[in-house]
Amino acid sequence: MKKLVITSTLALLTTVWSMVGAQDFPDEYLGLPGDNLNLYATMKLFQESETLESFEKNLNDENSRINNLDLNGDNQVDYIMVIDYIDGDVHSIVLRAALNKDETQDVAVFTVQRVEDGSVQVQLVGDEALYGKNYIIEPIYADSGETPNPGYIGNSGNNSNVEVVRTTTYEVAAWPVVRYIYLPTYVSWHSSWYWDYYPSYWNPWRPFYWHTYYGYHYNYHNHYYGHYRSWNYNRCNNYNNFYYSNIRTHSSNVRARINNGNYRSTYSRPDLRKDGEALYSRTNSGKNARSRNNVSVDDRRGNTSKSAKSRSIESTRSGAERSSGTNVTRKTKDSSVTRGTENVRKSSKVNGSRNVEKNTSVKQKTGNAPKSSTKVSNRNVSKTSEAPRSVRSGRTSGQSQTKSAVSSRSSGSQSRSAVSSGNSGSSSRSSGSRSSSGSSSSRSSGRR
Fold it and tell me: What pTM did the predictor assign?
């Protein structure tokens, strides 16, 4: 009876543990070190890279949040070297980690194969020690009639909101990094770095717990499973003969650590998944803000400068419209001269038109106005009505007209003092008044 109770209790605990485990570990969980290098994210980075050198650099960038591997257990993320092995039109691009000065472990390998029609097939194969057998990621090819790997469907099998984006092998051939490795001038890329000799930009960091890492990448699942899928066999015919048998390197220490459960501690903090989600929200807040409000900090600055530029253009246009076709300079340092020129021009036109009207009315009344006086007045009107090119020329014109007005007033006074006919006297007085009016307008124009 006692044994029966103990057995029932153990069975119940096992069931509860399984239920808790099912909640803590989603479909993507492998329980192997490869969980800490998301191959979907790695494929996405490969597709977006220009060269293998930039791919290696960004793969090992802490800010990319892709590399979270610590295979040698030193509590530091391992540097992943990228090496391209070429066999005809097949490139085996290996991702490899150095565990110490004598040992390396392959993490995954890209197989890129070009066929005669110029199309290209690409796959990313996780190393069986870190991911298990036949863990293969590839683009979602538009080839109907083929069945993906039923053993691992990931989130794509459970999330109906994923929008599948299919591609062709010709589109894969247009990926920047694929075009790069098939250039006639391409030299096979081999990472320059090795154990304890790394680039200056490399600064290893403490790895995340797996749940934090998963909580971060979960936000990209719609993209991952919308563009890539798992597959159940290698498309490259020479994969086993060329890469697996002759190039692949693996560490017995990694295998021993897996068997001893040394990597299990990384899965021990399911409560930290929210930290990964918070990290994503914090580091991608700018992108989210642009999608919601279409305005980020940089965008607001750009819009401010843009609006200022627009206001400047509108101000220039309105100034040009106010100038009514006159040649107004647009330089700031000449703006005062420009305004003075416009004022002189307007005053000259108004006063000139008044002089013309007065001359006409006086001529109609007297009918005997001296021709010389009319010519002088007309010359004054023509000089005044011309738009001066600067304030200085306006002042000069005003001074010359003032002198002529003084002489006209003196002749007028002499005519009044002399005994003459009423018509000539009135004519002289009219001439003097006209000259006086011209002098006052000239003086006002000079002052302005």
Answer: 0.60
